[in-house]
Write a structure and sequence with these properties.
The protein is an alpha+beta fold. The chain has one domain. It is built from four helices and three strands. Strands 1-3-2 form a three-stranded antiparallel beta sheet. The two termini are 24 Å apart.
């Protein structure tokens, strides 16, 4: 589930590179929802790699609403204040 991936990203050191196709698909969902900033590979890439840059402000708010982030004071430093619309 993408929410679990978002919670996992909260615990990871960002930026990071993801090469698991299933996780890249979940990142596509999170990006479409405006919760992460990520450079995604083409769908038909032979060796896909996604570059996860940061959790957006919306992603941080979603984590707080779901009870995550309370034990991680660094969360605010790793989140963007505004989501990107590009």
């Amino acid at each position: 589930m993408p929410m679990e991936n978002l919670q996992g990203l909260e615990r990871d050191d960002l930026p990071l590179i993801e090469s698991d196709v299933r996780n890249i698909d979940k990142l596509r969902v999170l990006r479409a929802a405006g919760m992460v900033e990520v450079r995604l590979p083409p769908v038909d890439a032979d060796q896909p790699k996604a570059h996860v840059l940061y959790i957006t402000g919306l992603g941080c708010a979603t984590l707080r609403a779901h009870g995550a982030g309370r034990a991680t004071p660094r969360l605010q430093m790793r989140c963007d204040l505004e989501s990107s619309l590009d």
